[in-house]
Amino acid sequence: MTTGRVNPKQRLEDQGISGLGNVYYNLQEPQLVEAALSRGEGQLGRGGAFLVTTGKHTGRSPKDKFVVRTPETEDSIWWENNPPMQPDAFQTLKQDMIAHMAGRDYFVQDLFGGADPAHRLDVRVVTELAWHGLFIRHLLRRPDPASIDSFTPDFTIINCPSFKADPARHGCRSETVIAINIADRTILIGGTEYAGENKKSVFTLLNYLLPEKNIMPMHCSANHAPGNPVDTAVFFGLSGTGKTTLSADPKRVLIGDDEHGWSDRGTFNFEGGCYAKTINLSAEAEPEIYATTSRFATVIENMVYDEDTRELDFDDDSLTANMRCAYPLHYISNASATALGGHPKNVIMLTCDAFGVLPPIARLTPAQAMYHFLSGFTSKVAGTERGVTEPEPTFSTCFGAPFMPRRPEVYGELLKGKIAKHGATCWLVNTGWTGGAYGTGSRMPIKATRALLTA
């Protein structure tokens, strides 16, 4: 049985996926919350938020992510950073996953990656968990109902947490797998309930496709001055280094908190929502983000809460330091309705310095900016990846190496050209430690960083 609105020529059966149980197409938030509750996937929280835990996977699994090696990708993928999977192994994986899906209910969301209609990616996300459908509906951009009738996916993501991969049979590393096949226009995710794999898979696709159109894909947040999109700022940084927090400035218009493109027309958000870390979140320091944690359909991921009152504990990291909330952009009162900005006036590179050596802020020449962009010195923040339990100094090229399928110089040349053409001013901002290294010093106060940026 199928339920919901869908292009009648683009059902799953038309994509070779048949034999499933009930298939629910493009359910909206109330229906997805109801489905997730009835299936026992989580609990209802205060204000109608949805509370979930994700088992042993509470962060991304970058070592289990593969790109299928085909003639199309042979010379364009940065293979030293993106482990290859052979095409025949992928086809076996796909066949086995679809066979595993037989008789089970699935949830389908047809969504856009990219706020600029000229450069968007039409993505179909097929999820075993109803709350994953809710999550990705928040994080990507939602088409108006009428356009669903003609929606044709450019790429399809199939996410099946109950499927366990076989390394010997599927050419992967463990029971967990994220396999990207550009030629097949398919991404397969298995063996993990962590919702962030869905959004980062779309980001990886856009990071591969957009450079061919002279568009710079950026692991950054962005905002602009009220009524003045020309005054746009972008904040590069690894997960957990302050992109979401610093871009959610009540005195500026939020474009987006994590993934953007820089085209010849300006800046555009890839997403339609935010995925914010909630550890030590407070109403005083970050009122807008804090308020979303008790809004209807916000997904609360891996947070400890009181079973009776459902009150969240923002200080308890016993499940993970990578506790998060996912919500649509319009839950932030000063969010841009279009998610579009001008050419960045300021390019800010956030580094989480666990050694406490770098200054709170420094202006960079374009050459220095390229050095910091390509070297990407920062820290992996606790919990953002499996096995990371405390700040871990790292060099993550382009401030997003796990999501960069092409070689770093491709992105470096694009950014260098954009900065030169549009005269952006570049800054290095340390959101890590001051007064000593991790364990001795203290984390840079967010209010102090905001004051420096405003000045």
Automatic annotation (TrEMBL):
Alphabetical GO biological process terms: gluconeogenesis
Assigned keywords, A-Z: ATP-binding, Decarboxylase, Gluconeogenesis, Lyase, Nucleotide-binding
Gene Ontology MF terms in the entry: ATP binding; phosphoenolpyruvate carboxykinase (ATP) activity
Reactions the enzyme catalyzes: oxaloacetate + ATP = phosphoenolpyruvate + ADP + CO2
A GO CC term assigned to this protein in UniProt: cytosol
Keyword Translocase set for record: no
EC assignment: 4.1.1.49
Stated family: Belongs to the phosphoenolpyruvate carboxykinase (ATP) family.
One matching Pfam family: PEPCK_ATP
SUPFAM superfamilies the record matches: PEP carboxykinase N-terminal domain (SSF68923), PEP carboxykinase-like (SSF53795)
Keyword Kinase annotated: no
InterPro entries the record matches: PEP_carboxykinase_ATP (IPR001272), PEP_carboxykinase_C (IPR013035), PEP_carboxykinase_N (IPR008210)
Protein name: phosphoenolpyruvate carboxykinase (ATP)
Pathways involved: Carbohydrate biosynthesis; gluconeogenesis
Species of origin: marine sediment metagenome
Enzyme class label: lyase
